Protein 1
Amino acid sequence: MTRFILVRLLQSFVALIGISILIFVLVRASGDPTDLYRTSLSSEEDIARIRHNLGLDKSIPEQYWIFITDLAQGDLGESLIKHRSATEMILERLPNTLSLAVASFFVSMLLALFLGILGATRRDTFLDNGVKFIAILGQALPGFWVAIMAILVFSVYWQIFPPSGSGGFMHYVLPVATMAFFLLPGMMRLVRSSMLDVLDSEYIKLARIKGLPERTIIFKHALRNALIAPLTAAGMLFAMLITGMVVTEQVFAWPGIGRLILEALWARDFPVVQGITLMVAAAVLLVNLVVDILYAYINPQIRYQMM
Amino acid sequence: MDTTRLVDFDKLARRARPKRIFFQLTFIIPVVVLSVVVILAIFAPLVAPYPYDQINMSERLMPPFFMEEGNTSHILGTDHMGRDVLSRVIYGAQISFSIALLVILITSSIGTVVGIISGYMGGRTDAFLMRVTDISLAFPAILIAILLAATLGPGYWTVVIALSFLGWAPYARLMRGEALQLREADFVTQARTIGASPIRVMVRHIFPNIVNPLIIIVTLAVGMVILTEAVLSYIGAGIPPPNPSWGAMVEEGRVFIDTAWWISFFPGAAIGLVVLSGNFLGDWLRDKLDPRLRQI
């Protein structure tokens, strides 16, 4: 197991280096970043000074080395617009994003478990078809549009929930519902199909023959094993969570990191965009690493296979 | 002889019939919807009542024809600059479908090549390629799109590059699985025995046998790509205004949601309709061509 963790850790580290090079190259692929804020008034000297301040007058490998050593010290660079440290700006917004993400994740997970189990145990009934219908709609309708229509109904006509901003409990309702719209279909399908697989297995039949109550069979015997398969998809769910956060924060003017990266995008503030991308990339790798290790811990077959 | 009949065939047929009709409908309706939208997109200049960028400040925020103040000169109303919503939705289909076509061409080609090589070659090549595929699958495409939009500037080709950048991974994943199975098939072993080169085996023997699953995921990808393009245009990392991208139109209407809901509603409904049709068609093809790929 230790060896497995070490190998995976090393792979994640290599991947992180790879992604940092990729992002570094992509940001510079457009040519000279100083073009982005060259105005008709700026003299050649100004441009040269900016280039020097940004370290653009050095060679590419040298630039990468500076970039990566700064990164290792937690320095993501300085915003071109606000002239502040990007790290600071991100940390300032992090709590808002985390609170919405955590709330949305738990609400979606609980709903997905409830609806997924319901769909699997009452297969091909009216309820099951209802669950499938929600999943089909959830995968086809654009989340941002559904959110705007929700604002129309709940904030404009009925005025129950505030249309934007963050604050009290009421501010959470519509954003969390929007996030659930992104996360629920995928989660629900996973729980339902893996629950169906497990319910079909021999040991569940044995439990039934033993005469155990249905409740015990489903929650004690089936659910535990049914949850292993969705776990492997947790990495993909995390990517969906991030996409959902960016869109949701934009719709509801939620002052989080998703909103920050979009503000930086519109202002062409590339150090901030680059900083957030790197941070999220690291988070994605970390989540996948933890999931892999957890999965190997639960399922020994994987552990030996991957050696 | 009738005593051996255990199944009541009449009853079975009665039950199966509505199911079969439903199954046929999930093919016919999406095909009709998608054909209509594609034809409208191709002939947009002839079909659309107005040019997509014709501004008319005296006819701002006009409601659709079925509402009290609306009239049939602007069937779906006008936006905050007096542009005809219906015309913009029709032109928007051009952007959505051309991007979907380009992105799917690029990603399915790259993904299929990577997948077949990975599955057929195996060993270290396979381990490396699949690790890259795993990371690409786990990485949110929206971030690459934002990064590219911030450096290259938002635009048509930025969206195509951004969506293709990670979009090949699902194809590679699926094709690898298929190639892995076919590698052990008798006809592949025989081809190898008579001295066919690895490239010949992959092109002539493996590829023709994975066309079915390829067709299925290509169809399922249409909705996916259109939806992602809409998200990118919505957040300002996609097609910049005044181009009539569906996602950007929804965003433009967001500010006017309390007075003019139709600006956001119709383009969003168009996305939903097209994606729903694409997904149904994909599911139908999967059930027809390759039921083993079914998830539920």
Protein 2
Amino acid sequence: MDKSTNILIVDDYKTMLRIIRNLLRQLDFNNVEEATDGAQALAMLRSGNYGLVISDWNMQPMTGLQLLHEVRADAKLRHLPFIMVTAESKTENVIAAKQAGVSNYIVKPFNAETLKEKIEKALVHA
Amino acid sequence: MPDGGTGAGPAAWAERLAALRARHRDATTPEAVAEIVAQVLATMHGDLTANEATLLAEVEQIGRTIAAVKQEIAALQVEDINRAFIPSATDELDAIVEATAQATNEILDCCETLEKAAGEFAGARGEALQAAVTRIYEACSFQDITGQRITKVVRTLKSIEARIAAILATFSDRSAGAEPPPKVTAEEASALLNGPQLPGNGVDQAEIDRLLASLD
């Protein structure tokens, strides 16, 4: 697992961004940037060089699912590993995310071990 | 059977009813119903047939029911719900979100300090401290979940508020200008934003993993 990977974390709760950043630091991922909604994240992804997105679903004005659709439709970003971290735990949500091309799906609240495992899988398959 | 005092046969009645129906096609307010009732009553004079007497009694009953509903709504003082109770409840809920966010950030401040200190302890003591800090980080994600749950409650309260306003607009002259409840667009309805689920309603991480694997 390449610990120098640039990771973009996306969540409208600043506290959640801080928690995920701290957990990533514990996993030795230190190249982490933040966005607070899908639109901001998409602009950052298009102008930057990221190896992984960890995104919430429920955000305005652009949701995590919309962001995922935009990423998969973008020639430059379409193969970017994308992990959804969300409180949306209905089966229909998981299926919709999978159909949109999500790399992995973590339901909140989650633990550090789950985050580590999903990141490893997402980066291996990248 | 005599024609009765209204001087109108079934065909004439049907014609009048059709005319009223055409005039009041979109009538949904109690005032419009009362107007229709008044027009029906105005056509009845002289000796009534048994059918007309029954119709008259039922029409009068409708009028009494509408008047009773208006009195009951006035007695309930439902306007207080929209004027004070719901805004107060939503403010309190917003304050809970703000207070828990503030507390969570203070906990995270302390954790980051502890994490730095953990680096000064070698071996098992340092690892134990680090593991404890990780568990606190994990637990702190409660603030996101509770925040989303409270947002759902606030949205529900606002929906109730809009519906009460619509009821008041229908039955109370004082609230005639109230806004109707907002309509949910098809896009909003299909947005899949269900929020956190109560135990048993959603799927857990293990079920999600199985589901994703089955879709590969």
